[in-house]
Amino acid sequence: MGPLAGVRVVEFQGLGPAPFAAMWLADMGAEVVELVRPGARALFPVPQDELARGRRRVEIDLKDDAARAELMPLIERADILIEGFRPGVMERLGLGPEVLCARNPRLVYGRMTGWGQDGPRAAEAGHDITYLALTGALHAIGGADRPVPPLNLLGGFAGGSLYLIAGLLAALVERGRSGQGQVVDAAIVDGTAHLTSMIHSLMAGGHWRDARAANLLDGGAPYYRCYVCADGLWLAIGALEPQFWAALVEGLGGPDLPDRADPANWPLLEARLAGLFAERSRADWLEIFDGTDACVAPVHDFSAAAADPHMQARAVFTARGGGIAVNPAPRLSRTPGALPEAGVADTLEACFADWR
User: Fold this and answer.
1) What is the pLDDT of residues 27-42, one digit of tens each?
2) Distance linking the first and last C-alpha atoms of the chain
3) DSSP 3-state assignment of 90?
4) Gyration radius (Cα) of the chain, Å
5) Model pTM above 0.85
6) Cα angle 91-94-99, degrees, rounded to a multiple of 5
7) Cα gap 163→159, rounded to integer Å
8) DSSP for residue 158
């Protein structure tokens, strides 16, 4: 089931962005075989690894010549290959794109790295914080006193996984015209930099200061930030447009506030808003702003997010394996994806039989 039913994916076991991409493909119906190193252990052991769901998992020693030879018939039947090793590793194993695309000219060969396949840092180790640092994105996130890494969501998954997915699907569409596969070089630095395109446009137009907590969308504007309520819980306020700001002010009781258009007034306006929100509990404020366009929402922790009425109505989350699984996104009307089961151990022979 799903829009990618019949698409065959070979995934070389990796960390972070590559498994997330393979998970998304499996959510959308692709047949994914993950090749696992013998004796490999999870970096973070969990009862159920959601990033590994929807896979057939086959142990294989890629350093063994005979094992690699046994793998070739599977790759010759694959539509997509995903690997997340440092540049040159697959080539040293005899599994680089020149070799495998010669064996399977229709293969879309996806390469997921932090720095990319070339450049001065290509062979270096890195993590999200270092990739984001190089793109300028990390400089823009956090309080005025220091940059703050935004989990691994912006770099590994948004700038990495989702750009790998987009590249793989674009290559599949093009293959439908040409009959030829190609290599997708997905680098976190490329994708994250691409995500900052709007910010660069705003800077060029004089609408963005190259500093943290000094702009409309980075917590600098007092009408686009979070405030603590009387009970210690937080509200997110996003009243950017004039009509949304008017609804917020009305809900606050119509106080006389400094002109928000002048950034010089922002410190005073922030202090006034902080004092107002501190007068009531979050539940009281949510009741006041319920159904309005003031752009107010509770800042949930992960457990509260799963229990939120809106998230429950849309079935965003599912309880399983002693934790919370997130259902596939986006939603397709005719061929929707589905939440697959956890990965299952399998053999190359069984995969060959099903892929003939």
Assistant:
1) 999 999 999 999 877 6
2) 19
3) helix
4) 24
5) yes
6) 90
7) 6
8) I
